Amino acid sequence: MKTARELGLMPESRLAVGPDNGITDVPGVAVGHRSLRGEGIFTGVTAILPHPGDLFRLKPRAAVEVINGFGKSAGLMQVAELGTIETPILLTNTFGVAACTEALIRRAIAANPAIGRKTSTVNPLVCECNDGSINDIQALAVTPGDAMAALDEARAGPVEQGAVGAGSGMTAFGFKAGIGTASRRLRIGKRDFMLGTLVLANFGAAGDLVLPDGRRPDPRVPASPERGSVIVITATDLPLGDRQLQRVARRGGAGLARLGAFWGHGSGDIVLCFTTADPVEHDPAKAFSTQERLADDHIDIAFRAAAETTQEAVLNALCMAPATPARNGRLYPALADWLKENPSP
Q1: Whole-prediction pTM value?
Q2: Is 229 a catalytic residue?
């Protein structure tokens, strides 16, 4: 399978693409997958690690943007309130949230036995989409062990995309979709930074997809209401304040809108944005800390990067996923196959 860029779908950008065109271009960020296959089972877990250290002890700063809140994620409320994350981020199907939550709690306690006893509890962060059209979601196939396996597989470098990990059973705009990622290099002053986005794409009504060249692919599947979801994880090493992180997260919605999304009533559209710059210590040695922050006059480049990487990540999720049968016998086609049959004029 080829990415959207390899298929010629992405127009020229003012911003350079990172070396692997993925969220792992942000230094320290790692991604791992656990894919589950079996009788009626087509699901999994994807793990995003913001840095290789102890996240409970050294918490990346973060913000949440809930575009449409039809979702069952865990941990977002505390992130919105405190502005930090303290576990890896796990993506899975809707009924896998509990298993992934348990895995994150157990992993954090193993590294910090004082959690819940001599210090605070831990806030496990799990986001979900419903893959029930392809996967038998009632089987509750995802276990804490699967979540641990995804965490153990997390690596820097190129990210596997398409129908893998949490993206195994996901669909978008009537096509097979899943996991996608993209990145941009940011030059501000005389310093270079990276911004990368990973999406779990499971949204969009059939026939609504708009490609960058204006074409509207027809998946030739029955029309249905927009009841999907999309999780957008944006990472950067750019030093941003709490308010700025949420503003960047909000621009993920611009990337989704470019694709034709309108965030329907039954859609859970969530953006989580974090920075690896100036993390927060769990036990600070001083009463006051100093954090670097980008001047607002220079933030447009981050807004552009967030919109572009979200759009391209979704297109990569679509382009890298093969045609897959649904549980009711219908077929979710591959966008790559449609592009072969309908070359750009």
Answers
A1: 0.98
A2: yes
